[in-house]
Structures are given as C-alpha cells and as structure tokens.
Amino acid sequence: xxxxxxxxxxxxxxxxxxxxxxxxxxxxxxxxxxxxxxxxxxxxxxxxxxxxxxxxxxxxxxxxxxxxxxxxxxxxxxxxxxxxxxxxxxxxxxxxxxxxxxxxxxxxxxxxxxxxxxxxxxxxxxxxxxxxxxxxxxxxxxxxxxxxxxxxxxxxxxxxxxxxxxxxxxxxxxxxxxxxxxxxxxxxxxxxxxxxxxxxxxxxxxxxxxxxxxxxxxxxxxxxxxxxxxxxxxxxxxxxxxxxxxxxxxxxxxxxxxxxxxxxxxxxxxxxxxxxxxxxxxxxxxxxxxxxxxxxxxxxxxxxxxxxxxxxxxxxxxxxxxxxxxxxxxxxxx
Length: 334
Description:
Blueprint: E1 7-12, H1 17-26, E2 31-35, E3 43-46, E4 51-54, E5 60-62, E6 66-71, H2 77-80, H3 88-110, H4 121-124, H5 127-134, E7 143-146, E8 158-162, E9 168-170, E10 173-174, E11 178-181, E12 191-195, E13 201-208, E14 211-218, H6 229-235, E15 242-243, H7 248-260, E16 265-273, E17 276-283, H8 299-307, E18 320-322, E19 331-333
Helix pairs in contact: 1-8
C-alpha cells in the first residue's frame, strides 16, 4: 500500500521500547518505522532525487510524502548483540545498508526534514567539549583524561572514573561510574577521572526542543558504595524516579546551554549537592521511556507532537554551530 498522505519516518531498531510507545501514540498509519536490524525484511530503493522503502506489512514510504525524519536508535545486529559472532559477509551487508541509510538521513537533514536528534552530535561535541561549554552555566566537577601517567598530584584523592564510550569491557561487563582512590588506577590504562561529588540526588532533565522535563532519584536508596544509578538498578529493586521542580535560573541555563550545543533534544544528567546542580553530561540521544512509560509526565505527548506529520516541522539547525568558546572561535560542523 503506497502512502499518499503526509508521513513521518522513524529510523530505529526492533528492540526500541521508546519507539514502540511513539508508534502506539502517533499511530501506525502516520509513521513508517524502519528497523535497521531487520533490514532484510524491507525493500529499499534510494535514487538521486527520491527514495522508496517498503515495509514487511506492505506499506511504502515515498520521499514525496515523508515530511519528518527522526533518527532514534538504528543498530545493526552486531551492535545489538556484541557477544555474538557474525559472518564477515553478514557484517559487510549490514554496514553497506547502514551507510546508505545514513546518507538518506543526511539528505533529510539538508532538506530540512530531520528533527530532534542529530546522530553527529557525539562526534561534533562529545563529553569533554560538553563539560567545557557547561562551565558557563553550571558547576562542573574537575576532570581530566589521562593515559600512561598517574592521575593528578593528590595521591589518595577520592574521585570517580567513568567511560567515554560506554563500550563493554568484557562479554557482559560495562564500566559504570565508580568511586575510587587515585592510587588504585593503573597508569598504563586510559582513564576519564572526575572529582567525587557527595550528592543527595541524581537529576535528569529531558529537553525536547522547547520543553523541559525534570526527574530525580534519591541516592539514599542506592546500595552502599554505589554512585551510578544505572549500577544501582542492577543490584537492588529499581529506584523510583519522581518529577523534579527546576529553579527558573537552572531551566534558563539549560536552554542557553542547549542553544550553544546546537541541540534540539538531549537528556542532561546532574548531581544535586545542596542547591548546586553539578553538570555531568548531556546525551544527545538519551532514552526516556523509563521516565514516562505511561505518558503521565507529558514526555510521550510532547515527543508525539514533534513527530506527528500533522504538526509543523522544526528542522535541526543547519549549519550546526557549536559555541564552544575554545580559542574564542565558533566551531562549525556538517
């Protein structure tokens, strides 16, 4: 069935619960979902001025009718299941298809149809650059990245180590943010190290273009010695995230920070220590389904409005201009 009415394109994978919620809210007839890990079930034709993609259910996305394109979590089978072994031919085919779809997103971006999430954000301004920009608006714990040398000059200083890439360090192991003493770290390894902050609460703020949704979790609910809420969830019953009221000054600072980062979407993580919001990072493609699974907090409704083909399209900034402040220059990417 060829769709001849406005349509939004959702690019993701088949294990994306956030995408499941969006499809249910917006309507399957208004969205075309492409799951990268199941690309063999689709028919794909991309030409110089047009594209057609057919779904397993017989629906077709014609570029003439696609008015919004959202990059969610497109992952290949190898990315979804890093513990599995895939034949080289399978990997080659997966990567070829992913490359073509990345170019399709590029086309949508330059035509002003790409919304909310820019997959290049992590490359243009990753965690270290984020921290640099954030110092203009928030308290940022002192940090350093080292390799081949001892950390800092204060032996025994309490700090935390965290991963920049979030890649696995073993078959089923990841490096959660962990509190350590400096002299525990092997000098030969690369380490992202940050001052330890004795916080009472974790605060995460989801920004959906012009709307902010803040949530908090009480750290007193964490198991002893655990500082990463993700790690806490693996060791004890899931902690309850509650709505959080942001001070007007912090909300304003978040909006200005997101403008500097050229982001329309992101989930910002803070530690709340007393009245200080200590910035940790912004994830430009952060998950949200676990924060508002029933839609009670308004996140699902806002995202559905942004994605719906029946509402105005708010394209991503083009060109991307990140106001890093480094060397007094404006950095352009894209």
